């Protein structure tokens, strides 16, 4: 049995998220359909993370096991030929049997894009924030989420997880042209974590909270203490890191 690793890029605008749903169009569902037709095997994908409806990916990673002897490059080209243009297989490689896109992952990097002006072109790839934001206190607040912390306060209410601990290795706000961009890397993320963090940082940038409030919110473990969940269409899964494949 061969193990094929895919790196996938997709525009999440028209999909009900990554995860397969029987009565909805999802990225996983479309990929599995095209790859099953191509390989003549039933394909079941394991992904590094499940993105929500409207969320985009530049470097989602998934893997599947197959008896097909098609070369990896043929799987890439043939899969893309059967997919909508909003999903692209960037690369396909045969990897060791033990590799899992989810469990072998050591780091995941996300980006959230805030536009400083309302856009016609590119409006589905950034969120327009109508308020003036001061990036300096937002960046200062990043210091309080670095390292291993309990992010229950920044998780979708009602999520039933074994634990909410994530180890954030980097967090950065920066300006680029008409955009204010948040990039964060961690070993794992809880549901809606990046979008809730971004919403809380926006309140800090508006002057409604102090940067030090980020520590207080973390320690509270109370979702009601954090900011709003910002819209999905500004969020990108940028890349997934592996120490060994």
Overview of this protein structure:
- There is one protein chain.
- The protein is an alpha+beta fold.
- It has 2 domains: 94 residues, Pseudouridine synthase I, catalytic domain, N-terminal subdomain (Alpha-Beta Plaits), CATH 3.30.70; 137 residues, 2-Layer Sandwich (Alpha-Beta Plaits).
- 21% of the residues lie in helices and 31% in strands.
- The chain contains 5 helices and 10 strands, in the order E-H-E-E-H-E-E-E-H-E-E-E-H-H-E.
- Strands 1, 2, 3, 4, 5, 6, 7, 8, 9 and 10 form a 10-stranded mixed sheet that branches.
- Helix 1 crosses helix 2 and helix 3 crosses helix 4.
- The longest helix is centred in the N-terminal third of the chain and has 13 residues.
- The two termini are 17 Å apart.
- The model has no long low-confidence stretch (mean pLDDT 96).
Features:
245 residues, alpha+beta, Alpha-Beta Plaits, 2 domains, 5 helices, 10 strands, 31% strand
Major beta sheet summary:
10 strands, mixed
Shape: globular
Number of helices: 5
Q: Any idea of the CATH topology of the largest domain?
A: Alpha-Beta Plaits
Compressed to H and E, one letter per element, the order equals EHEEHEEEHEEEHHE
Indicate the radius of gyration in whole angstroms: 19 Å
Low-pLDDT residue intervals, each spanning 5 or more residues? none
Q: What portion of residues belong to β-strands?
A: 25-35%
How do the helices and strands line up, and which of them pair or pack?
Layout: E1 2-10, H1 27-39, E2 46-47, E3 56-66, H2 72-81, E4 87-95, E5 105-115, E6 127-128, H3 135-142, E7 147-150, E8 165-176, E9 179-186, H4 193-205, H5 213-220, E10 235-242
Parallel strand pairs: 3-10, 5-6
Antiparallel strand pairs: 1-3, 1-4, 2-3, 5-9, 5-10, 7-8, 8-9
